[in-house]
């Protein structure tokens, strides 16, 4: 039975942004259209030594592999906020920044900065960045690719004598946290720079009880609520933000092209759901008398899956919303339970508490809020029916972002020029994509205009050791960024 679609936001006002439907983007007809209008593959020309392959490809790939070995685990790649490996990675990136001719520093949120002032230090600066942290059991390209390609492009400019001719300052930022693994609060690094990180975040704690502030203090970084606010960049000092990132999807591989421009990024909400019941002996408490939070959590998770697979079966709409909102959810809504824990977690004990995370993403911010509202109401009703307590906490919210048309156009032209230089052929166009994954550009959009470039990844696989970008595609990304930076000279 359909219920009223609640269009009133729970925590903040929402600007509904028109964004291309992801289902259209990934539809077979759309991909066929791209495949017809674009060449099936990029061929790398002979005699391309003038394209700086020794830096943009060979050295960049070597650095990605080197960074991929900096891990807190021996068996897999993992770097979380302010972990020992994260600090080592930051130190390594700082050396590469200096190698490119940049002045470097680490701020009070652990972000690593490298900056060149250019001909006019008083001009607004171009910021380029991505994140140095990873998920657990990660691939080596997510985040790192954007940092390494930026430094490679700037190193080429430095060697060629062009760095000193840049008309405005350029700053590369390796953000300390984007994934949100340790504190379940994403964009710690970029949100601080953008001025949208709540001061209360400093007191959020990880599973060991260490707070964000405490994790920084362990690495000799002292931060208070007052100087967190001081980390925000003055919007009048920033010209724009550009980010290079792996696509984390299959579109570029399908159309046979290494690079694509990003039009927008889906909004996302992260929840932490805690279900509390009555702990008891597994063999002595009758089934009819149990207040089992595990069984309740299982029903809640199945509800989430059902609602997000068929949102139209759960939602109707009122005068504030249109049917297109529900329709767009059917094409772009994705929901995930990525983490679950129990206490006391023993095979012969009915647990007293179960906690799990929920990740909800959609291109339509209003529709995403409607899903959260409906999901929360139905979860509370299930918990009441089962006589257990249910606590739903919103841990992270990010509205959908539309990339700046002007900055994107400049990046697109540079990408086109780079691919033409590499292949020696004329291209019809550079593909335009939407991102279902969140990126630091979402936080930085609160500070300045943003643009993003996606790089093809094999099979569309990411957040996995199987994540892979070919050496030539790393090269293509570096060439595109170099061509973009050359327009500033």
Summarize the SSE layout with pairings.
Elements: H1 22-26, H2 28-37, H3 53-67, H4 84-99, E1 103-106, E2 112-116, E3 125-131, H5 144-160, E4 170-175, H6 188-194, H7 212-218, H8 225-229, E5 238-246, H9 251-255, E6 259-265, E7 267-276, E8 280-281, H10 293-309, H11 323-332, E9 334-336, E10 340-343, E11 349-350, E12 353-362, H12 365-385, E13 389-398, E14 401-402, H13 405-423, E15 432-435, H14 440-444, E16 450-455, H15 471-486
Parallel strand pairs: 3-4, 3-5, 5-16, 6-15
Antiparallel strand pairs: 1-2, 2-4, 6-14, 6-16, 7-12, 7-13, 8-11, 9-12, 10-12
Helix pairs in contact: 3-5, 3-15, 4-5, 5-15, 10-12, 13-15
Organism: Sesamum indicum (Oriental sesame)
Subcellular location: Endoplasmic reticulum
Protein name: allantoate deiminase
Polypeptide structure, described:
This protein has 489 residues and is of the alpha+beta class. It contains 15 helices and 16 strands. It has helices at 22-26, 28-37, 53-67, 84-99, 144-160, 188-194, 212-218, 225-229, 251-255, 293-309, 323-332, 365-385, 405-423, 440-444, 471-486, and strands at residues 103-106, 112-116, 125-131, 170-175, 238-246, 259-265, 267-276, 280-281, 334-336, 340-343, 349-350, 353-362, 389-398, 401-402, 432-435, 450-455. Strands 1, 2, 3, 4, 5, 6, 14, 15 and 16 form a 9-stranded mixed β-sheet that branches. Strands 7, 9, 10, 12 and 13 form a 5-stranded antiparallel β-sheet that branches. Strands 8-11 form a two-stranded antiparallel sheet. α5 (144-160) links the parallel β3 and β4 (170-175). α10 packs antiparallel against α12 and α13 (405-423) crosses α15. Mean pLDDT is 88; it is low at 1-49. It comes from Sesamum indicum. InterPro entries: Amidase_Cbmase, ArgE/DapE_CS, Bact_exopeptidase_dim_dom, Peptidase_M20, Peptidase_M20_dimer.
């Amino acid at each position: 039975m359909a219920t009223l679609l609640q269009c009133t936001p729970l925590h903040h006002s929402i600007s509904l942004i028109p964004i291309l439907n992801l289902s259209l983007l990934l539809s077979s007809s759309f991909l066929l259209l791209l495949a017809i209008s674009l060449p099936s593959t990029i061929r790398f020309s002979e005699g391309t030594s003038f394209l700086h392959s020794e830096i943009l490809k060979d050295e960049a790939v070597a650095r990605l592999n080197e960074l991929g070995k900096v891990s807190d685990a021996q068996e897999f790649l993992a770097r979380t906020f302010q972990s020992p490996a994260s600090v080592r990675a930051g130190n390594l990136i700082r050396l590469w920044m200096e190698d490119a001719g940049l002045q470097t520093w680490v701020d009070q949120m652990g972000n690593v900065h490298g900056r060149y002032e250019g001909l006019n230090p008083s001009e607004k600066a171009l910021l380029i960045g991505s994140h140095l942290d990873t998920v657990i059991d990660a691939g080596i390209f997510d985040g790192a690719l954007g940092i390494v390609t930026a430094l490679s492009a700037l190193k080429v400019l430095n060697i060629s004598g062009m760095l000193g001719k840049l008309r405005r300052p350029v700053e590369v930022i390796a953000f300390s946290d984007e994934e949100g693994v340790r504190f379940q609060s994403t964009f710690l690094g970029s949100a601080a720079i953008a001025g949208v990180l709540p001061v209360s975040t400093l007191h959020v704690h990880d599973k060991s009880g260490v707070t964000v502030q405490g994790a920084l203090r362990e690495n000799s970084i002292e931060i208070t609520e007052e100087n967190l606010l001081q980390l925000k960049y003055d919007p009048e000092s920033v010209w724009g933000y550009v980010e290079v990132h792996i696509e984390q999807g299959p579109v570029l591989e399908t159309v046979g092209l290494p690079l694509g421009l990003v039009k927008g990024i889906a909004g996302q909400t992260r929840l932490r759901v805690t279900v509390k019941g009555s702990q008891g002996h597994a063999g002595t408490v009758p089934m009819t008398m149990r207040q089992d939070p595990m069984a309740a959590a299982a029903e809640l998770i199945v509800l989430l899956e059902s609602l997000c697979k068929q949102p139209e079966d759960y939602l109707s709409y009122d005068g504030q919303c249109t049917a297109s909102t529900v329709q767009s959810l059917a094409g772009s809504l994705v929901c995930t339970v990525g983490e679950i824990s129990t206490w006391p977690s023993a095979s012969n004990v009915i647990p007293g508490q179960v906690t799990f995370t929920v990740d909800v993403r959609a291109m339509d911010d209003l529709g995403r809020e409607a899903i959260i509202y409906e999901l929360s109401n139905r979860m509370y009703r299930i918990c009441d029916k089962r006589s257990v307590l249910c606590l739903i906490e919103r841990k992270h919210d990010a509205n959908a972002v539309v990339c700046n048309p002007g900055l994107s156009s400049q990046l697109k032209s540079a990408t086109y020029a780079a691919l033409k230089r590499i292949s020696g052929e004329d291209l019809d166009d550079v593909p335009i994509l939407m991102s279902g994954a969140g990126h630091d550009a979402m936080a930085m959009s609160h500070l300045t205009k943003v643009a993003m470039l996606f790089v093809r990844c094999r099979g569309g696989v990411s957040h996995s050791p199987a994540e892979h970008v070919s050496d030539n595609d790393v090269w293509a990304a570096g060439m595109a960024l170099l061509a973009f930076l050359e327009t500033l000279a």
